[in-house]
Write a structure and sequence with these properties.
alpha/beta; four-stranded antiparallel β-sheet; about 30% helix; Rossmann fold
Length: about 450
């Protein structure tokens, strides 16, 4: 049976122009800029300095706290400097700049294409290797994966859910990975099941990817505890809470984590990275990135080393079209515009979307007509029009009471608003302010 979540949701144009483009190994650039914070939490502490020579896969910044993880060099070369550079957020943050030389990998890393299915590591060893390798959630949140795989005392995981939905329009990196690295991904799922101590895993895929569904169902015949669940196409089904609802029919309570309903969710590319970390001793230094857009000459899926400039990817996809109005890090719904092409690819970069000038400008906002479309499509059951009004008038108590912190920032409300009101912008303002208020209470 085809499942989906029951509350809200929309179906924007999919525009998966690069779905038929196999993953290409992108040649190394002349230099890379590797941020020391490519994850949610505390920035890592640099271990290298100007003039140091580093190998591919060498640790260059160490985890600095519980919610943090390691950063590794994606190339071989000489450290040009350790300084602040502009990243995809537009802020200047600490990063390591390296001039690239011929690849020389750390000796313990297996760079062969040989599939290693036999699992010899125990739960503690798997989690330790994931921490050491700097694995994070690669669906966008970049939360350190070793933490999600460490079950808190008193909690029990009943099912591991693997997110292969990729409901964000335009992006196809997960789709291609499921087609081309399905065997490795499946071993990664088994490794995470071992780490969690669970006997059931479900891979959720929307039914607009029949080739990926067929491929993984064939592979899953050798893995009796892993099933592939076909899901109806609906945005934002790839969001953690909606995916859990679709597959298990359980609802994560407001303000709580998936573990409260016995679930842990990981992205398909995270599963592949776990395979490489545990079975190949390979840290997270590269990922699949979709480069696409209506006027891009060659919409592509590239395997890219972290630190590679965005401009280098766009050039490989045929160059920047003349009518470009905006370049987005991510997809059109949840991605954010870049102010420079010099920003580097990080662990969380799933796609680069080039938007034509004609589609990059916002329509003038008009008065709210009380149509309630934003209420009916909100997958979290919020009232976006009310959150907008409360934020605009700085009624932070109302913003908090109306569960603004439950907003996943999917952008569905702004998308359907006939008055072109930037609802999500106001909600983000409210969330950030309320978050500061909540933190101040705990001090």
């Amino acid at each position: 049976m085809i499942k989906t979540f029951p509350k809200g949701g929309i179906h924007p144009p999919e525009d998966k122009f690069s779905a038929g483009s196999p993953i290409q190994e992108l040649p190394l650039p002349k230099s890379v800029i590797i941020p020391v914070c490519q994850h949610l939490g505390s920035p890592s502490e640099p271990l290298v300095k100007k003039g140091d020579r580093v190998k591919t896969g060498q640790i260059i910044a160490k985890s600095s706290g519980f919610v943090s993880t390691n950063i590794h060099s994606s190339v071989t070369g000489k450290v040009e400097k350790v300084d602040k550079f502009t990243d995809s957020t537009g802020y200047r943050r600490l990063a390591v700049s390296i001039n690239v030389e011929k690849d020389q990998w750390e000796d313990n890393i297996d760079t062969s294409n040989t599939l290693k299915k036999q699992i010899n590591s125990k739960a503690e060893e798997i989690i330790k290797k994931i921490l050491d390798a700097g694995i994070v959630g690669m669906g966008g949140a970049t939360f350190p994966s070793h933490i999600k795989l460490s079950v808190p005392k008193g909690k029990k995981v009943e099912v591991l859910i693997i997110n292969g939905v990729e409901c964000e329009p335009c992006l196809t990196s997960d789709h291609r990975l499921m087609l081309e690295k399905g065997e490795e991904m499946m071993v990664g799922v088994r490794l995470m099941m071992t780490a969690l101590g669970v006997n059931r895993a479900v891979i959720g895929i929307e039914n607009n990817k029949p080739d990926a569904i067929s491929n993984l169902k064939t592979i899953a015949k050798d893995y009796k505890t892993i099933e592939v669940q076909v899901l109806k196409v609906k945005y934002p089904q790839g969001a953690e809470k909606q995916l859990i609802k679709s597959i298990t029919r359980r609802e994560v309570p407001s303000g709580k984590l998936p573990i409260e309903v016995g679930a842990v969710v990981h992205n398909v590319e995270t599963a592949y990275a776990v395979y490489e970390a545990v079975q190949k001793n390979k840290p997270l230094i590269e990922r699949v990135v979709t480069v696409t857009g209506k006027n891009i000459a060659k919409p592509s899926n590239f395997m890219v080393r972290t630190g590679t400039p965005v401009a280098y990817l766009i050039e490989a996809a045929g160059g920047l079209p003349e009518d470009t109005g905006k370049i987005i890090n991510g997809g059109p719904m949840m991605g954010k515009a870049l102010n420079s092409l010099d920003v580097p690819v990080t662990k969380g970069t799933s796609g680069i979307l080039v938007v034509p000038q004609s589609e990059s400008l916002r329509r003038p906002a008009l008065n709210c007509i009380r149509c309630a479309k934003c209420v009916s499509i909100c997958p979290m059951g919020l009232e976006p029009y009310l959150l907008r009004a409360a934020s605009e008038h700085k009624k932070w108590d109302i913003v908090e009471e109306e569960r603004s912190m439950d907003c996943m920032e999917c952008g569905s409300c702004s998308y359907v608003c006939p008055s072109a009101i930037p609802l999500l912008d106001y909600i983000r303002l409210g969330k950030s302010t309320v978050s500061k208020i909540i933190r101040s209470r705990k001090q």
